[in-house]
Design a protein that fits this description.
Layout (H helix, E strand, L loop, with lengths): L2 E10 L5 H17 L3 E7 L2 E8 L1 H12 L4 E12 L10 E4 L7 H15 L5 H17 L7
Parallel strand pairs: 2-5
Antiparallel strand pairs: 1-3, 1-4, 2-3
The structure holds flavin mononucleotide (FMN).
The site of flavin mononucleotide has 16 residues, from α1, β3 and α2.
Length: 148
């Protein structure tokens, strides 16, 4: 079955409290699971990167809702399109905070990808796909994740 995937990046408002991110994850877990949307949210150095995957209409609607959220600005779609399967099948909304990770090589790998994402405005789909698979592997291997 085909799944629609959308990845965007945005800038968190300055000094966004951790409590607010926790609230976002809570709401996302609830809403996304009800709507069969899976994905992952990364927070790093003041930037969010999020992938949403599911039904095209539902994902697009959720994107529009997230877009007007005042907790972030400069929302920019990095990639959208169809895939043959979900990357985050097992997470309603995975969450990864880079600075919590202290596990060596994979940390570097994802950190490098994050740096690239922050520096370059549009990535090609293949790079992004590899990026999300790495993130998924990281979430699977570490205890620093929030599950649904
Ligand atoms: C970076 C970011 C990511 C978000 N991701 C989601 C999400 O995946 N699912 C969700 O329901 N809300 C998400 N939200 C929260 C929505 O913007 C919105 O606050 C929430 O859906 C509640 O909307 P409502 O009050 O209109 O029901 C996110 C917000 C931000 C800032």
């Amino acid at each position: 079955m085909k799944v629609y995937q959308l990845t965007y990046r945005s800038k968190a408002i300055p000094d966004l409290p951790l409590k607010e991110i926790q609230k976002i994850i809570e709401v996302a877990k609830d809403f996304n699971s009800t709507n069969e949307i899976s994905g992952c949210l990364i927070f790093d150095n003041g930037y969010f990167v999020q992938i949403l995957e599911g039904d095209e209409e539902k994902v697009t609607k959720l994107y529009s809702k997230i877009k007007i959220d005042r907790r972030h600005t400069q929302m920019e779609v990095l990639s959208k399109g169809w895939s043959s399967k979900r990357v985050f099948n097992d997470w309603g909304m995975g969450y990864l905070e880079m600075k919590e990770l202290k596990i060596g090589k994979k940390e570097d790998l994802v950190q490098n990808a994050m740096n690239e994402l922050t520096n370059i405005s549009v990535k090609n789909d293949f790079t992004l796909k590899v990026f999300w698979y790495n993130v998924h592997a990281l979430l699977t291997e570490t205890k620093f994740y929030k599950t649904l």
